[in-house]
Amino acid sequence: MANPDPNDLPPPYSVAVHTQPPLKKDEEVVYNVRPGLSPATYPHYIPQYPPHVVVPQTAPSSTASNSSRRRRGCCKNNAQCYGSSGGIFLLLALLALAIWLGIRFGARRPYGNYIPDDDDAYDPTYSEPYVPREDICPDNPVFCDAAMDCQLGSDETNCVRFASDGRLQVRAAADGRFLPVCNKGWLQSHADQTCAQLGFRKAFSTTAIQSQDSTALTLTGNSSAFVQGLVSTSSTCQDRERVSLQCVDCGRQQSTSRIIGGTEAKLGQWPWQLSLHFRGSHICGGVLISPDFVLTAAHCFPSNQHLVPGNWQVYSGVVSLSSLPEPYLVERIVLHENYDTQTNDRDVALLKLRNPVDFDENVQPACLPAFDQRFRVGTACWTSGFGTTDENNPRVSDTLMEVTVDIIGDTTCNSPAVYNGAVTRNMLCAGHLSGGRDSCQGDSGGPLVCQSEDRWYLAGITSWGSGCAQENKPGVYTRVARLLPWIYSTMQREKP
Question: Is the pTM higher than 0.85?
Answer without folding.
Answer: no
